[in-house]
Design a protein that fits this description.
Blueprint (H helix, E strand, L loop, with lengths): L3 H39 L15 H20 L13 H24 L32 H14 L4 H6 L2 H8 L9 E4 L5 H9 L5 E5 L2 H10 L6 E5 L12 E7 L7 H14 E12 L9 H10 L5 H5 L3 H6 L3 E9 L2 E8 L1
Parallel strand pairs: 1-2, 1-4, 2-3, 4-5
Antiparallel strand pairs: 5-7, 6-7
Helix pairs in contact: 1-3, 1-4, 3-4, 4-8
Length: 353
């Protein structure tokens, strides 16, 4: 039984770290919405038309988000992973990221109004990345291709998820714990596909600092950001690569993780990527995917999910909402173990037969 004093101290420390982050990013969201209303009013556009779909109110959203943080804390208290450090950087770094976020909002608004999403498809970029990748996802400047985009990304995602993005990512650590516990870290391997700026790998390394990990992403700029974010850790490599043809040997990985990526892939590409996941996993290896809820996972959220791609350029999100990942996995020799909702996201867990 846990020592009550130690448990109390852990809860106080957890709240002291997480509550200010949540307030900070909720505040960003409030300012963002106010700026949007101001811009529309100055342009004589008025408020956007109200969609005739049912969506959760903010009280419900915050209550469900609190459940996520309670689960995160419970994992800490159970010894699944240590008290998390989000490593957001110094105050000047955090403020600079906020500045970059707000400075991009007028351009985001203009792209949204004009449905302009192909600014990153140029003669310089054409053919160097898959065509579906060369878009201004979320209407942001630079798509996923520029250092400035990489510096904005973490703020954008935390604002979108009200400061819960890192806590959501950490829910992938529990199914990994189930296969890594009581094993020699140095003899295991983890592959994180679509590692982006390295936020999940940071959480992973806090739990298993000696376990060799490889992060792969299509964006050199985002890997550059990840390299800076992860520089305190050893036993970690970062590599530019395409999930459709992973530069990794077959049956070489004990676990594969994929965070917030599948909803940005065309349906045919998702199937190719799943085959690659299965190819590189060892027998009995674990695949853990964290991504958006799908239709029916939490019926009260279905309306909000359907509205999402209207406000954020996500051209493949609607198909994602209806995708049957159990069937896709089964066709690759992966057994579906479970799905667990995590606020507006979910954790999907598979094992290689």
């Amino acid at each position: 039984m846990a020592d009550p004093i130690s448990q109390f101290a852990t809860r106080i420390a957890y709240g002291a770290r997480q509550l200010p982050r949540v307030a900070w990013y909720i505040g960003h969201g409030m300012v963002m919405r106010r700026l949007s209303r101001t811009v529309r009013a100055r342009a004589g556009q008025g408020p956007p038309p109200q969609a005739r779909v049912k969506v959760p109110d903010r009280r419900r959203l915050y209550a469900d988000m609190a459940v996520l943080f309670q689960r995160d804390l419970a994992n800490v208290e159970a010894g699944i992973y240590p008290l998390p450090a989000d490593h957001d950087g110094t105050l000047p770094v955090v403020l600079n990221r906020s500045r970059l976020f707000f400075e991009d909002l007028p351009d985001v608004h203009r792209r949204r109004e004009r449905r302009d999403v192909r600014q990153v498809l140029t003669e310089d970029t054409r053919g160097k990345r898959p065509n579906y990748y060369l878009q201004n996802f979320h209407f942001q400047s630079g798509g996923w291709l520029t250092p400035e985009s990489a510096q904005r990304y973490d703020t954008q995602v935390e604002v979108l998820l009200n400061g819960s993005a890192n806590a959501t990512r950490r829910q992938a650590l529990l199914p990994l714990h189930e296969v890594f516990a009581r094993r020699d870290q140095r003899r295991l391997k983890l592959l994180d596909v679509g590692c982006g700026t390295g936020r999940f790998l940071d959480s992973f390394k806090q739990a298993w600092p000696r376990l060799p990990a490889l992060g792969i992403d299509l964006s050199e700029a985002y890997l550059g950001e990840a390299k800076q974010h992860l520089k305190q850790w050893c036993w970690i490599d970062l590599l530019v690569g395409n999930a459709e043809a992973l530069p990794v040997k077959s049956e070489s990985q004990d676990a594969v993780t994929n965070i917030f990526m599948l909803h940005e892939l065309p349906p045919k590409v998702r199937r190719v990527v799943f085959r690659e996941f299965a190819r590189v996993l060892k027998r009995g290896g674990r695949l853990v995917v964290v991504d958006s809820l799908q239709l029916g996972d939490a019926p009260d959220y279905d309306g909000m999910l359907e509205l999402f791609p209207r406000s954020y350029h996500e051209p493949y999100y609607t198909s994602y909402l209806k995708e049957d990942f159990r069937d896709i996995a089964a066709a690759c020799g992966l057994a579906h173990l479970r799905d667990v909702n995590a606020f507006v996201s979910k954790v999907m867990v598979f094992a290689k037969r």
